[in-house]
Amino acid sequence: MEMKRIKQILSSTADVDVTYNGTSVWIDEFNESDHTAVVHLRGPLEERTIVPISELNEEFEN
Prior knowledge:
Layout: H1 3-11, E1 18-20, E2 23-31, E3 36-41, E4 48-52, E5 56-58
Antiparallel strand pairs: 1-2, 1-5, 2-3, 3-4
C-alpha cells in the first residue's frame, strides 16, 4: 500500500477494509520515514504491531 493511501484512510470517516497477512486490521498510525504502520486486529484484541506498509492491502468488495 502507498503512504498516500494510508493518509487518506486515516483521515476518512469511511470503514476501509485493510488486511495484513490476510487478517483484517485497523491502522492506528504510521511512520513515514520508516515506511511502517502501527496496526491492531479488528475486534476485541488491542495488541498493536508495527508492520511494513508494503505488506498492507486494501480489500475491495466484489
